[in-house]
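step: validate -> pass
step: tokenize input -> pass
step: predict -> running
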Amino acid sequence: MPESYTYRMRVKENVRVTDPACQDEVVQLTLETNNCSAVTSFQTGQYVRIAIPGLQEPSPGYFAIASSPEDSDVYEFFIKKSGALSQYLCGLPEGSELDVEGPMGKGFDLETHKGSDVYLIGVGTGIAPLRSVWRHIIHHRTDYGRVHIYAGFLTSLHQLLTDELENLSNHDIEVSITLEMGNDNWDGPIGYVQHALESDAPDSKHAIACLAGMSVMVDACTETLQNLGFDESRILLNY
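step: predict -> pass
step: emit ->
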């Protein structure tokens, strides 16, 4: 696992990714090193601690890396504008500097599960560490069997990465999106991701599941997966 240490990075891009009509703002924040060298290597699912140089407040926070380990020039994050630090980060212009400590956490160890089917399950900005996984899998697609993403969002306005998710079929990756609250134009599943899992009843044989998101969702999906025959050792969390 890569060694964790603190270093200075700068904002390369900061782009809103939720619909402008959505009251919840989520940005895709891209950081690069000051000398444009390679970022510290990491494992899918790991996170970093971000702090504002020279300031005690807002206090530092932890954010999952959304880019893949193969993207060696940047770290990408999906940040929801909520607390003091996330509000600050969402408004940062290009070139702003941040202190980054990491990578941290156990991440998702896919190396020991080559040949397995992979199910990625997350909601909201919890999709960030899962994006790291599916982008990594694309680079090593023949190492894994069926790959299916179950993503949940509050409404269609809250959806993230719509175009990217739609294009994953080009890499033989299936995607199921569930909205907690549907609308007249929505013909997909309505409810929670565990309901979509239960309905699809994926085959647990030679399969792993990676979960990311709110603890209540993780707990509910873990129970659903266990009821479908998934052994606890094949239900992976990144922390």
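step: describe -> The chain has a mean pLDDT of 94.
step: cleanup -> pass
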